[in-house]
Write a structure and sequence with these properties.
Layout lengths: L4 E8 L6 H9 L6 E3 L9 E4 L15 H14 L11 E6 L15 H7 L1 H11 L7 E3 L5 H14 L5 E8 L3 H9 L20 E2 L1 E8 L10 E11 L12 H13 L7 E6 L5 H13 L6 E4 L1 H4 L6 H15 L1 E2 L15 E2 L4 E2 L4 E8 L3 E10 L1
Parallel strand pairs: 3-7, 4-5, 4-6, 10-11, 10-15, 11-13
Antiparallel strand pairs: 1-8, 2-3, 6-8, 9-16, 12-14, 15-16
Length: 379
């Protein structure tokens, strides 16, 4: 079986409309998080990373804001490769937690609206824009959706089912989503501070990202080629919203991921953690990484730049991870000042160089789900 390579990618967020623009913003320490005062999505002002405007594109009428976000990211990513969705050897996978849920609002749940809210129908509509031949797949498993979609794509390509995969992760922020997190008292009163002792919750974010994977090395994005390693998922079986208190289940996924990729902890250059900045998530992650013998590996969260983008998070953060892996740098953990977790981890405080070729991306979410995957650079 050939390696699975990254062929192209795109990120749309408040920091930019391309992966390069978003990566540069992160390297420069910029953030999309700002004070939001919009009664359409929240009765109270709050910190979040929201798109100010939605760029138009040819043929965009008749699509919801969420669908336009997905299509624009896919168009931008597809423009960087010769891979097409109207070929039988290409599969489209949509990663989202809520899709078109903003349409619900105060509207009556009619049969037509019910159809628009169905994620499989949304994926088919997005795919139809590109004349997709194969029936799209949908991954909606809380906040590990993006990483899980990438894992699924890798497995399908590895099994020889397809030659290429287009994975798009997206979510928009709506009153429904904001009120849900507010009801859990999980929204921070400040720009989020992952792994800091003064952290008090998340900042929500919206955006979209697309990764195009291929088994054909000639189509791999250059100059430094990136391979997508095997990934593993697990579940805490602990609580519908609260993570494991021991970190054992995420640790299991991480350790098995390293094993399947024939790697040791010392081979990992850095960890791109989930790092939501809630009290319990960051505590659980720190314990998990210590249990997995990763105490010396530099670690950061990207939530201080993008906020928590839900179904888009795993794809957005994977692309930033890949770009920093190519640059052989480790990015700092934004808004971090004081160590605030009981597990022993190595929080990245500044941009540093690394000669190692492998990075670990993890994600965790409601329902106790966890996922881990490895990306590697080859010359």
């Amino acid at each position: 079986m050939n390696n699975v390579f990254l062929a192209s990618g795109n990120i749309i967020s408040p920091l930019g409309l391309s992966t390069a623009d978003n990566y540069l913003a992160v390297k420069e320490g910029r953030t999309g998080i700002a004070w939001q005062n919009n009664t359409a999505i929240s009765a109270e002002p709050f910190y979040a990373s929201l798109l100010a405007t939605m760029p138009a594109f040819e043929g965009h009428t008749g699509y919801t804001r969420f669908e336009r976000l997905c299509i624009l990211s896919m168009k931008n990513a597809l423009a960087g490769t010769s891979i097409k969705l109207n070929h039988s050897d290409t599969i489209f996978i949509l990663s989202t937690t809520k899709g078109n849920i903003s349409l619900l609002g105060n509207n009556a749940l009619t049969p037509q609206l019910r159809s628009q809210l169905a994620l499989h129908a949304t994926a088919k509509k997005i795919g139809a824009y590109f004349n997709t031949v194969n029936t799209p797949l949908v991954i909606s498993n809380a906040c590990i959706s993006g990483v899980l979609a990438i894992m699924l794509a890798k497995r399908l390509l590895k099994a020889g089912k397809f030659k290429h995969a287009v994975i798009t992760g997206a979510d928009e922020i709506s009153y429904f989503i904001v009120s849900g997190f507010q009801s859990l008292h999980a929204v921070s009163s400040q720009p989020c501070k992952p792994f800091d002792k003064n952290r008090d919750g998340i900042n929500l974010g919206e955006g979209a990202a697309t990764m195009i994977l291929t088994v054909e090395e000639s189509l791999a994005d250059s100059p430094v080629k990136i391979t997508v390693g095997d990934g593993v998922s697990s579940n805490d079986a602990n609580h519908i919203s609260g993570p494991s208190r021991t970190g054992a289940e995420l640790s299991m996924a991480v350790s098995e991921t390293l094993k399947q990729n024939h790697l040791q902890p010392a081979d990992i250059s850095f960890i791109s953690a989930h790092g939501t900045a809630t009290v319990y998530n960051d505590e659980m992650e720190s314990k998990a990484f210590e249990l997995a013998a990763l105490t010396d590996v530099p670690l950061h969260s990207l939530k201080g730049h993008f906020g928590h983008t839900l179904g888009a998070a795993g794809v957005i953060e994977s692309l930033i991870t890949i770009y920093s892996l190519r640059d052989e740098i480790i990015l700092p953990n934004k808004n971090y000042n004081d160590y605030g977790v009981s597990g022993k981890v190595n929080i990245s405080r500044a941009t540093t160089k690394t000669g190692k070729k492998n990075a670990l991306k993890t994600a965790s979410g409601f329902g106790g789900c966890n996922a881990a995957i490895v990306y590697s650079s080859i010359n």
